[in-house]
């Protein structure tokens, strides 16, 4: 029995995340004037929202994937029609 022996120390593991892919997000969203609300971002929908949103949408680079609610295009069309 060898009481003086010890096990080698366990390696220290650390997790690193590459945040490069999300780095452009704050600048991308800034023109919309989003505000934090209950762990999400919101924007007040006014008469100017359709113009603001469509102008912003045109600035989004093609390599950025947007997942828009299916109702949004119809809703925007109605807003433009009713304006």
Structural description of this entry:
This protein has helices at residues 25-29, 49-59, 71-82; strands spanning 35-37, 40-42. Strands 1-2 form a two-stranded antiparallel sheet. The chain contains three helices and two strands, in the order H-E-E-H-H. The radius of gyration is 24 Å and the shape is elongated. With 83 residues, it is mainly α. It is 34% helix and 7% strand.
Contiguous low-pLDDT stretches (5 residues minimum) are none
Q: What is the percent of helical residues?
A: 25-40%
Structural Rg? 24 Å
Q: Can you count the helices?
A: 3
Number of strands: 2
The chain-level structural class is mainly alpha
Question: Based on CA inertia axes, which overall geometry fits?
Answer: elongated
N-to-C CA distance: 88 Å
The major beta sheet can be summarized as: 2 strands, antiparallel
Major sheet strand order: 1-2
Mean pLDDT across the residues is: 82
Order of helices and strands: HEEHH
Question: Strand portion, in percent?
Answer: 5-15%
**What's the number of structural domains?**
1
Q: Could you outline the blueprint of secondary structure elements for this entry?
A:
Layout: H1 25-29, E1 35-37, E2 40-42, H2 49-59, H3 71-82
Antiparallel strand pairs: 1-2
């Amino acid at each position: 029995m060898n009481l003086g022996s010890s096990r080698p120390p366990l390696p220290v593991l650390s997790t690193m995340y590459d945040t490069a892919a999300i780095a452009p997000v704050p600048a991308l969203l800034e023109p919309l004037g989003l505000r934090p609300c209950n762990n999400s971002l919101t924007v007040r929908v006014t008469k100017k929202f359709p113009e603001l949103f469509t102008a912003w949408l045109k600035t989004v680079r093609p390599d950025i994937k947007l997942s828009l609610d299916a109702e949004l295009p119809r809703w925007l069309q109605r807003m433009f029609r009713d304006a």
